[in-house]
Design a protein that fits this description.
Strand content: 15-25%
Shape: elongated
Radius of gyration: 26 Å
Number of helices: 3
Number of strands: 3
Oligomer: single chain
Helix content: 40-55%
Largest sheet: 3 strands, antiparallel
Distance between the termini: 94 Å
Order of helices and strands: HHEEEH
């Protein structure tokens, strides 16, 4: 019985480092996925808010983008941003380098871009009501 007393120690010496490395890689991958989802959501929310208040221009969208990016829980570092606020649409583009780019292979930067058309909700609601009235007059 004494010949087999050390097999648990040998198995633990092999399996515990492998399990630790696997857990760290999963945490790293999850942070990468979180960054991608957060950037897409932030770009959309900033573009949508900018389209809602198009009269305030690109500075308003930049402020909204700063406020939204301050809410990040995890961050790989600063992002490159492009805001194009026009009369008809607002486009927000975010681009961020990741630590994965130092690894071998062709791993691209994280990119998120949204273009939202400017809408005037008051005019839209009035138009829908007018169309309903016209439809009801023909029924």
């Amino acid at each position: 019985m004494k010949e087999r007393d050390g097999y648990v120690v040998v198995e633990a010496a092999v399996l515990l480092p492998l399990a630790s490395i696997l857990i760290l890689l999963l945490i790293y991958l999850c942070s990468y996925l979180y960054q991608g989802c957060f950037m897409v959501q932030t770009a959309y929310r900033a573009a949508f808010r900018g389209s809602r208040y198009a009269e305030y221009g690109a500075e308003f969208v930049e402020k909204q983008l700063d406020n939204l990016l301050d809410e990040a829980v995890l961050s790989f570092g600063p992002e490159e941003r492009t805001v194009d606020a026009g009369i008809l649409s607002v486009k927000v583009t975010l681009e961020k380098e990741t630590p994965f780019q130092n690894l071998p292979g062709n791993i691209p930067k994280l990119k998120a871009s949204w273009k939202v058309h400017v809408r005037d909700p008051v005019a839209y609601i009035r138009g829908v009501r007018k169309l309903k009235e016209i439809r009801q007059s023909y029924e």
